[in-house]
TrEMBL record:
<dbReference type="GO" id="GO:0052689">
    <property type="term" value="F:carboxylic ester hydrolase activity"/>
</dbReference>
<dbReference type="GO" id="GO:0008236">
    <property type="term" value="F:serine-type peptidase activity"/>
</dbReference>
<dbReference type="InterPro" id="IPR001375">
    <property type="entry name" value="Peptidase_S9_cat"/>
</dbReference>
<dbReference type="GO" id="GO:0006508">
    <property type="term" value="P:proteolysis"/>
</dbReference>
<keyword id="KW-0378">Hydrolase</keyword>
<dbReference type="InterPro" id="IPR029058">
    <property type="entry name" value="AB_hydrolase_fold"/>
</dbReference>
<feature type="domain" description="Peptidase S9 prolyl oligopeptidase catalytic">
    <location>
        <begin position="79"/>
        <end position="272"/>
    </location>
</feature>
<dbReference type="InterPro" id="IPR050261">
    <property type="entry name" value="FrsA_esterase"/>
</dbReference>
<protein>
    <submittedName>
        <fullName>Prolyl oligopeptidase family serine peptidase</fullName>
    </submittedName>
</protein>
<dbReference type="Pfam" id="PF00326">
    <property type="entry name" value="Peptidase_S9"/>
</dbReference>
Amino acid sequence: MKINFHIILQSLAFILMGFNYNSQEKTSYRERHVTITSKDNFKQHGVLYTPQNSGKLTPAIVVGHGSAPSTYEDVGYYTYLAQKLGFVVLAYDKRGVGESKGIYRRFNLSESQESFDLLSNDMSLWVDFLARQQGVDSNNIGLLGGSQAGWIMPFTAYKNNKVKFIISGEGTPLSAGEEQYFSELTDDRLDGPMSIKEADAKMSEFNGPKGFDPRDILKKIDVPILWIFGTSDPVIPVDASIRELKTMEHPKHEIVVLKNGNHDFVNVETGVSYNLLEYIGPWLAKIGVSK
């Protein structure tokens, strides 16, 4: 996976259109900058968004990151979704980015196990932080994010039993090596050297190093996961990912497929963004997460 700025660019596009995720809910959300200390003793910075006048315990979400060096503002798209659903939200600067200390690591297949272990440790600490906050329903804390977060969030849930649900946008249950192989075949582009269909047909030929492989983790964790894919995503091997999930037959995994959707959840035929709330809201109700 190359460094992926898709969601960051999506957030910027909405801002240019006059839509600011971080101010969208200012009339109904309190915003507080907070810090924690990572396991390796680096200060990590985040922003806690709390609904005003809730009057009851509220479910909460930690927003995850893709592979880019992103701040809490750069994942504002997911923060917005969680706010629209009424959650307490914690978004943070990825380690080594913004006000978070430590070293930001570019994606590197050979280091993916170690790197994802570190990133999931950070996310787990933010889950613990949320669980301690007044007004948070500590029995209903979930994770929401896209792309690389699709690996980090299950790893976090494996380490922290406070995680009760996961919403993964354009993530994959395949290994980092398989994803990188597909990404190189398409060059992360619809007009790349190989089409999505052609690249998918080559997936069975992969025999390289896998790096981080989430399969065992996904089989072990008993956490509901909503997987959202787009059929026109040149970054993630969507068809192979869906085949893998169907093979796993995990009773708590559900798949949503967006026809002609790309890595930004945009229909490439119409140019219109999918409203993910139409899929996430009913799924949350189905698994019993109430606000």
